[in-house]
Amino acid sequence: MRGQDEAAAQAAVATAAAHDAQASADAASAAGASAASSAISAGANDAAGTGNADSALPASDHAKLYFDLGSSQLPQTAAGDLGGVLQALQAKADAKARISGFHDESGSAATNAELAKQRAQAVKQWLQEQGIASERIELDKPAVTEGGGDAREARRVEVSVE
Questions:
Q1: Secondary structure element (H or E) that encloses residue 159, with its range
Q2: CA-CA distance, 138 to 15, in Å (whole number)?
C-alpha cells in the first residue's frame, strides 16, 4: 500500500511540474513580441551609445540579420546587429535605410517571398520604434539567394544606409 501511495505522489508531482512548465511557456508566449521588442529596444539603446558606454558600437552603414527557419520574429541579436545602422541613421538626418529580405528556391516561391517580406517589415517596424521615420525606410522586393551556400543566407535580411 505504501508503495502505491509513493508512486501516486510521484505521479502528482510530475503532473504538477509539467503543468507549471506549460504555464511558463504560455506566459512567455503571451509576453511574446512585446517583451522581445522591449528587450531588443533596450539593447539598441546600449548598442547606439545611449546606455552603457562599454557596449557602444561604431556607426555602420550595413547590417545582416539571420532569422530562424519559418519565422519572421526578430532574432535575439537584432539590437546588436542593427545598433550601428541605427546610430548611422540618427547621425545623418538625410540618410535612408534600404531593407532587403532574402529567400531560397526550395518550396513555394510565393510563401518564401512572403516570409522574406514579413522579415523585412519586422526590421522596418523595429527601426520605426527607434524613432526612424517611415519615409526614411525603403523595402526592396524579396530576392532569391543563389547557389548552394550556407542555408541561413536564405533566411537573412540586409539593411544598408544610403
A1: strand 156-161
A2: 51
Q: What is this structure's pTM?
A: 0.66
Q: Which residue has the cell 529596444?
A: 41
Residue closest to 152 by CA, chosen among 65, 62, 82, 83? 65
Element (H, E) at 98: strand 97-103
Let me know the angle formed at the C-alpha of 71 by 37 and 110, rounded to the nearest 5 degrees: 130
The DSSP letter of residue 146 is P
Read off the C-alpha cell for 40: 531588443
Please give the Cα distance from 149 to 110 (Å, whole number). 22
Count of residues for the chain? Answer: 162
Say how far apart CA 106 and CA 21 lie, in whole Å.
35
Closest CA to 42 of 71, 91, 76: 76
Secondary structure tally for the chain: helices H, strands E = 3, 5
Among residues 56, 102, 88, 84, the alpha carbon closest in space to that of 162 is found at: 88
pLDDT in tens, 5-21: 444 434 433 333 333 33
Alpha helices by DSSP H, 48-75:
none
- Model confidence pLDDT, tens digit, residues 72-90: 999 999 999 999 999 999 9
The one-letter code for the residue type at 77 is T
